[in-house]
Amino acid sequence: MEKRKKTKELSEDLRSKIVRKHGQSQGYKSISKDLNVPVSTAHSVIKKFKAHGTVANLPRCGRKRKIDERFQRKIVRMVDKEPRLTSKQVQAALQSEGTTVSTRTIRRRLNETGLYGRIPMKTPRLTQRHKKARLEFAKTYLRKPKTFWKNVLWDTPTGPGPYTQAQKPMEWSTTLVSLDMSSEV
C-alpha cells in the first residue's frame, strides 16, 4: 500500500473565502475553479463551518509538548557548545531555570534535530602528515631480514584500553568524532 503525501493546511483566509463564496450561493464546483482547490476540500470546509460556526483550527487531541521550539533550540545550543554534556546535566540546567523535563524527552528532542549520543573514537583521526610518516617508517623496515625481527621485543595487549564498557565518554554528534587523547593521564 502506497503512503499518501501529506498535504498542507489551507490558510484561514482561504477557508473564509470558500465560506463567503458559498454564502453568495455559489456551488462547490465554481468555488473549486475560482480558488483552485479540490471540490472535496471546499465541501469539507463548508461542512466544518456549518457544524462549528468557525473556519479556525479547532483544538486537537493529544498532549501538548513540554518543550517548545525555543527550548529545543536552547538545548541544541547547549549541546553544540559542550558536546560531552549528558542529558542529566542538560536537565539540571533547565531545572535551574524553572523547567522540569525528563532526560528521555531531552534525548528525543536532540534526536529530532539529528544529534545522537556517540562514543568518540579512541584514537584521533590520521592527518596527511601522520600517513606520510607511517609510510616512510614501513618503507625503511620493509627489506629487513628475518634475523632482524627475531631481536625485536614485541609488546602484547594485556587487557582493555583506557575505558571499560561502562566508563566510555559520550558525545552528542551527527557523525563519529575523535577523542582527544592529550587530556588523558
What are the main properties of this structure?
disordered C terminus, 185 residues, two-stranded antiparallel ribbon, single chain, mainly alpha
Q: Can you put this structure into words, describing what you see?
A:
There is one protein chain. By secondary structure, the chain is mainly alpha-helical. The protein contains 8 helices and 2 strands. The chain has helices at 12-23, 28-35, 39-52, 69-81, 87-96, 103-112, 128-140, 146-150, and strands at residues 116-118, 171-173. A two-stranded antiparallel ribbon has the order 1-2. α1 (12-23) packs across α3 and α2 crosses α3 (39-52). The chain is elongated and about 100 Å long. 8% of the residues are buried.
With helices defined by DSSP (H or I, 4 residues minimum), what is the helix count? Answer: 8
Low-pLDDT runs of 5+ residues are 181-185
Order of helices and strands: HHHHHHEHHE
Q: β content, as a range?
A: under 5%
Strand order of the largest sheet: 1-2
Question: Average pLDDT across residues?
Answer: 83
Largest sheet: 2 strands, antiparallel
* Secondary structure category: mainly alpha
Number of strands: 2
- Oligomeric composition of the shown chains: single chain
Please state the overall shape, judged from the principal axes of the Cα atoms.
elongated
Q: What fraction, in percent, of the residue positions are helical?
A: 40-55%
**Radius of gyration computed on alpha carbons:** 31 Å
